[in-house]
Predict the 3D structure of the following.
Amino acid sequence: MTETPERRDADGTPVTYGSYLAIDELLRLQHPRSSPEHPDELLFIVVHQASELWFKCMLHEMEQLVTRMERGDTMFAVLSVQRLNALVQIVAAQLSALDTLPPQHFAQFRGYLGTSSGSQSEQFRALEAASGLRDPHFMHAIAEHGEPPALVRAWLARPTLQSLFEGLLEREGIPMAELYTGAAPTPLFLLAEGLLEFEQGFARWRFLHVQLVERILGPGTGGTGGTLGARYLMKTVQQKFFPALWAVRAEFYGAAQLAGEGGGARTT
């Protein structure tokens, strides 16, 4: 039986849980700014730092998804989007921790945030770009305070997920509507549904964020960094990454409606 070789850090000491995960360094990254320190500020910082770590994982998985779609590895792309969907759920779920933050407590340390705002998150903006946002509202938002960050520009220069998916369909010679008319699910069908699940999860995450902001700040209060708060966030809930995948559903019901007008209503 082969023994696992002992791994050592740069200083020659054995690799431990703490050294492998850099726990000491990680736990020194939380710096509440309120004075005296507000007991709820640590929670606020940790939730947002954790979100940025999950964003890093999501962008890593997005890179895997895009690469596999570019190569035509449909089933591997299905696995990638499944993991991406699990990560979206985690990021959305952790917002519930901030639901325990009463508005009067946040008001006591909000001023110490300065001009910081979640809209300034480069990784979040990169995720939006990677997912396929290219509409004028998004492009204006990312350029409002100067040239977009390099990470965002890099994703904007790449094909959208929708265009990559349409490329897979074209390669197989399959019209999009036929994904939903076959005798059995195909890998492309599973990928299509996985992409829509990602979009729904992203929209759910946005909606939960809106509810959180309204619960703490109220519907009409402006956000930090000069943003419009919940009013701006609510507009983003309607953004679509895969309009073609949503539109193809209307083809079935549009055809049924036309048939019904011609004589006899159809229900399937």
User: Anything to note?
Assistant: Residues 41-71 form the longest helix (31 residues). Confidence is low (pLDDT under 50) at residues 255-268.
